[in-house]
From TrEMBL:
Gene3D superfamilies: 5' to 3' exonuclease, C-terminal subdomain (1.10.150.20), GIY-YIG endonuclease (3.40.1440.10), UvrC, RNAse H endonuclease domain (3.30.420.340)
InterPro entries, A to Z: GIY-YIG_endonuc, GIY-YIG_endonuc_sf, GIY-YIG_UvrC_Cho, RuvA_2-like, UVR_dom, UVR_dom_sf, UvrABC_protein_C, UvrC
Localisation per UniProt entry: Cytoplasm
Protein name: UvrABC system protein C
Keywords: Cytoplasm, DNA damage, DNA excision, DNA repair, Excision nuclease, SOS response
Domain GIY-YIG: residue ranges: 23-105
Keyword DNA repair: yes
Annotated family: Belongs to the UvrC family.
SUPFAM superfamilies with a match to the protein in the record: C-terminal UvrC-binding domain of UvrB, GIY-YIG endonuclease, RuvA domain 2-like
Quaternary structure (record): Interacts with UvrB in an incision complex.
Organism ancestry: Bacteria, Pseudomonadati, Nitrospinota/Tectimicrobiota group, Nitrospinota, Nitrospinia
Organism: Nitrospina watsonii
Main location: cytoplasm
Amino acid sequence: MQRKVALPPNDSIKEILKTIPKLPGIYIMKDKAGEILYIGKAKSLYSRVRSYFTESRDHAPRTRIFVRKVADIKVLTTKTEQEALILESNFVKKHQPRYNVMLKDDKHYPYLRLTTQETYPRLEVVRRVKKDGATYFGPYTMVREVRETIRLIYKIFPLRQSSDELDGNAKRRPCLNYHMKRCLAPCAGLVSPEDYARVVNDVILFLKGKNSELLDSLKAKMADASEGQRYEEAAVFRDKIDAVNTVLDKQRIISTSMENQDIVACYTEAKATMVQVLIVRNGKMLAEKLFKMNNPEEEPDAETLASFLKQYYADETLFPSEILVSHDLEDRELIEDWLSEKRQARVKIEIPQRGKKRQLVQMAEENARFAMRAELDKGDVATRSLEELRETLGLKNFPKTIEGFDISNIGGTHAVGSMVYFHNAKAEKSKYRRFKIKTVDGIDDYAMLTEVMTRRYARLLDENKPLPDLILIDGGKGHLSTGYRVLQSLELEERIDLACIAKGKFRTNLDTDEVFLVGRKDSVSFKENSPSRFLLQRVRDEAHRFAIDYHRSLRGKNALKSPLQDIPGIGKKRHLLLLKTFGSLENIKHASLEDLQQLPGVTAPLAKKIKDAVNV
């Protein structure tokens, strides 16, 4: 038997409930600290908000939890329920309340923008669709997919690739693309807007997937060129026809009705929901998107899908005429009206029960289920690799957290240390740390490692922060002994496990890498294709990459640094004055002491320091 929700004893809530209007709008529930717990919309705020605080057997577990925490309620009224829906979507996206079902992977996918508002349109990749008069195509799931499409278009159609503003007047001589017959040279004024528009029309047909019409157009042009005995021109059209046919062979026709559809299905498990979106345009499957939603209370699929659609389509401007979903939705008619108004044409949401449309939804459901299993299996693989690592190395601790170290220096200059952080076998880059070596001169990796590790773990001890379970050092037995002495000096040798990984006989072959432990002469033996061994190599490689990046950064900054900046008495203004007066460091180098002393504030001793600095 479910627990009933009684009205909270908080008198302020009772007073708030009395003042709530009987109008459409959104309600914002907060806890004692002012944190937003939940945001919802209602046709009647008065009825909807009061329903949370009346005894009922129908409240979901999540609702029973957050209602007990409510200390304040704010409302915003709107003229219509549809306005409330839009306002709710915007507020949920902005504030991300704990008890709303949230879209985690809110990505902006790439689109192709054809600037048809210009006299001579061009193509570009964008992430946002605007009402600017241009024509947009997409979305595409990967930039690589977009780049390949553009490459193919430039191969088939002589569309300009420059980004100049063109008005038909010549701006320059034709470029190489013109001579390769891949551009009509509008920048050189060699093509009329009418002739160029015919090319643009073919590009639009291609991007809209209307390749049958495009093929008919190209075949007609090829026949015309052939009849006029313009055989080279006919051959160009023949090659374009072949390229379009190749694209057609790769496209999968899944609907003979040539509809524009989004197919949306979800699968919930382990307090998360995977939502699969299949994008069908003109009956062809163009792309698919996968989203993960935070669903802590495993809310019903109807509510989850409604939350997804409101968040997913909030920023979209290109809509299909039909959306097929796997479950019925809360406020389905309201969401339809909202999307129809945004599209300025009818958008229908359908829950198909049979036939071809039902098969499409089942395909999306199966993909969502498969994606969820893959996501959960990732966690299982991580756990198995960590369990194997503990067993193979004989560790005292389960290696839930691993910190990896590397030292980078060339000729002893700009020496740095890096530390990377892995939690449950996954890198957490926000916890990476880098160290500029402060106490070691020259080349001494062991002394540098001592400094870095001492600084790291002395600080963790001082701040009473958690220690890692395992430390991995990029290096050999000498590095391992150095690391162990650091742990001994901080009395941590019994609390943290330690290992090192070294390049083996063949440095470019990962199979010869060797892992060493304290007190063990020989390297550790791993099973073939061991996931735990791969994990250690990944930690090592990431620490090395992070150290090298920092080292290069410091070298780059030093290359841009002027020797004048290190001279006491030379500030920013005097530094600029020297360069402005003499023009360059080379001229300062050849200037006399007397010349330098002509500048305000430059004494004889300071002039000598300047000469010494630039002559190093």
